[in-house]
TrEMBL record:
Membrane topology reported for the UniProt record: Multi-pass membrane protein
Gene Ontology annotations for the cellular component aspect, listed alphabetically: plasma membrane
Keywords attached to this entry: Cell membrane, Membrane, Sugar transport, Transmembrane, Transmembrane helix, Transport
First-listed, main subcellular location of the protein, grouped into a coarse class: membrane
Transmembrane segments: 7-29, 52-72, 79-103, 109-126, 138-156, 168-191, 248-267, 287-306, 313-333, 345-364, 376-395, 415-434
Residues covered by the Major facilitator superfamily (MFS) profile domain: 7-438
Cellular localisation: Cell membrane
GO function terms (MF aspect): transmembrane transporter activity
Pfam families (alphabetical): Sugar_tr
Protein name: Major facilitator superfamily (MFS) profile domain-containing protein
Amino acid sequence: MEDGRKLQYVVTCAVSILTSTMGFINTWATPMIRKFWLDETDFQFNDEETKWFLKITPIGLLVGTVFAGYICDKFGRRTTLLTATVIAAFGSIFAALSSAAWMLYVMQGLWTFSLGIVWTVGNIYMAEIVDPDIRGGLTLATRFMFHFGSLLMIWIGEKVSYRAMNNLIIIAPLLSFAAIYPIPESPYYLLKVGKEEQARKELSRLQENVGTEDIDTQFEKMKMHVTTEMQNPSSFFKFFSNKRYRKALIITFGLMSFYILSGRAVMQGLYLTILIEGDIKLNPRKMVDIDVGIKLGIGILSALLVDRVGRRILLLWSFIGCSLSFAVIAIYFEVRDYYTEMIQSIGYITFAAVIIFLISNSLGLASVKEVVEVELFPLNVRVMAVVTLYVFRGLGYPLNLGLIEFRNSAGRVSVFWTLAVIAMLGFIFTYFVLPETKRKSLKEIQEMLRGDDNVSEQEMTTIHERTERFRERAA
């Protein structure tokens, strides 16, 4: 760990505690609803009530995302994350007191609302406080900790009683509040709202290098960058119509579209069929554990690789793996219809294809795209862009239902060939459209998107002049 940026790693740990809390509480339904089915609780929660409970999730995420967009630019990134921990704590209180279905509805609404906030603001905060050469890895570290929290809930939830879990679950958001409270505010946000001295102080804390030329120059560069970006149009209409943002819009909405159509929901719906086809003696519930375990393990691998091999390479391999997995399953089911006995003897190949799909999807498409989404937009529209993308992501729910209906009407083979083609189109899109952003500062990324290769001589002269004036005032 470099001495000059220990605080950046400390902040990553704090945000990771928060994201693991979100994973922990928002996976509550996986072990707990099963306890209702087995009559291991002190009140009833029937199938109809369970359906309404699950319908709250996309609503809470959507409302939380929009709310985060409003308060993030008004009160700051750190304050917004703290707000999420408080809301999650209130949800945990309803869990502890739960004795009727409506209390579980409120609990789920508050928990998913807080998740929408964290999922929206967490990446923005990390992108703005972490140095370029470690930004991707540390951002993804906070993401895979969400899956660690999910796995923890699955393991603990199966071993403790319903009431014991609900009484203790409030510990998680309280720990998150304690972790987030001391971390610094984003210097970019502070400069955006005109708090220059506080911004410089927070930048110095993050670099632990107060008073040196490097900090002075870096602060002046950041200040000029923020000033320049805040002069650009930032209304919702201009966000879509101004050509300055067009390339970033095409890339991010393109990647989000391929993610929505990646077929994860279709694959999850075939777990039982594939286990039967492969004659694999595995409880379907264990597939959920395997799924989350792969997300966690490959998430760690992705975090280690993203700043070394780059965003593009991971996304390209992700699309290749997904496409091959769908093609193998499509070929298997197509041949199986004609040579049933012969092909069923190698049914395990479908299980292997599912595992390859889960690994490939987690390696790039489900993780790296979230780093790219934040990096490509300038400060003046960054929050609005991320909120718009995540609202657009909400289309994934009806689209996945549509894919399932398409599977039921056209057959599994047609759906899998369609998904294989979509993944290959994603590969082509990434190869020709997505620029590499590893080890580039947010300012350098904007210059790259505009076609500016270097900082102008006039800009560097201005930076040096401002740095000298700052030193004279300090002396």
